[in-house]
Specification:
Helix content is 34%, strand content 14%. By secondary structure, it is α/β, with parallel strands linked by helices. Strand 10, helix 12 and strand 11 form a beta-alpha-beta unit. Bound molecules: adenosine-5'-diphosphate and magnesium ion.
Length: 453
Amino acid sequence: MSFESLNLNPSILKAIVESGYTEPTAIQSEAIPVVLAGHDLMASAQTGTGKTAAFMLPALHKLATPSAVKSKGPRVLVLTPTRELATQVNDAARKYGKTLRVNTVSILGGMPYPLQNKLLSGFVDILVATPGRLIDHIDRGRIDFSRLEMLILDEADRMLDMGFIEDVEKIAAATPASRQTLLFSATLDGNIGKLATRLLKDPKRIQIAAQQDRHENIEQRLHYVDDLAHKNRLLQHLVTDTDLKQAIVFTSTKRDADMLAEDLFAQGHSAAALHGDMNQGARNRTLTKLRRGGIRILVATDVAARGIDVPGISHVINFDLPKFAEDYVHRIGRTGRAGASGIAVSFASHKDMMHLKRIERFTGQNITLHTVPGMEPKRIPRAEAPRSGQGRKFSGKPGGSSAGNGGGYNNGNRSAAGQPRREGGGYARSGERTSEKRPNSGGAAHHSGRRHG
Ligand code: ADP
Ligand code: MG
């Protein structure tokens, strides 16, 4: 993804080039189109991933069109928890907006009122403020929000931690209800969710996986498979390996999870299924047994697998690839717990190639091709050509160089991560989503006949 493809105003593109940015970070390529489309947004991504530009660039883009309202008040208001952050945001607004004529003002605690009053009485396009001081000015009737179009809460989690929730709500209430509201935070859980419900209208959610979710201690392997029989042979090979202490095998459907668990059990393995059709009691019993080592192979669907934290799990096996790239990250995170190393194996047929690429784009990592002697795929998918077969370490810094471009098509952390989310109809999905309810992809047909294969 390039900045050009985001359809930002050419003056802004120029400022981006001057800033030395060559391509948007994951949060930028996800968030900017959503903001430009006028949606409210709640977004989380790790520190240092370029969230400021993710909201400032589309905000500036909007400012390039004159306001229809005749007043001098701010069109964009950014609230930040601290003065330091407000200053940074203000600097960013000036940097990215330098080729546009925008007036930015910051209103921070600890600064003299007379100067602030003067600044507020002139034309303001972007106002960056800490909540406490801004409230003072609002209470004194010094701020005209009549042309405010956008309210941005930066580091909303910290604002809540610092006890600014009431101030933030009060400020929001002083702005027009027609505004667009963006919330950026390290997390979107708990109180942030509640705040968002009160201040945002039908928001899109974007969550970019955090660094610690990148699972550097997990070796990601790929096996090309010809057909279901080939998958079953490979699985048998893997589960008889003595290095495999405990494993979770993921299937797309509950039915497949049950059938595969039965098959493995019939072959003499201590295997069991775990999925959303089981009642909570049964699920808990299965998990306890897994934790105590009474189950060596758990066959599960995505919905049942969230949050399983069992240190003995040495392997995760994607018998079927997850439909959503984000689930891939959740799945492989079941191994390599508590600093241990783990192995994540994925089976993919030639039909899965596009999907595999999406997963790799999302994680910013290549999955390394493996073969088992005597079980090599008959057919090597075409996408094989650009693969180096080398896993590539992710370099977490925006603008940092990727160490080697193993896949040719996989361009580091700033690639279009999260693209698969759009398949779900929204920009991001949260919490529990039953894989079982997803429309069947090619996978289901592919599986029928497991029993005979
Ligand atoms: P966050 O708010 O997510 O912690 P910032 O917005 O402060 O991150 O950005 C962190 C650093 O990354 C800043 O130095 C910024 O200039 C830089 N940066 C932002 N976007 C890009 C990009 N697309 N390419 C390279 N560097 C970027
Ligand atoms: Mg920030």
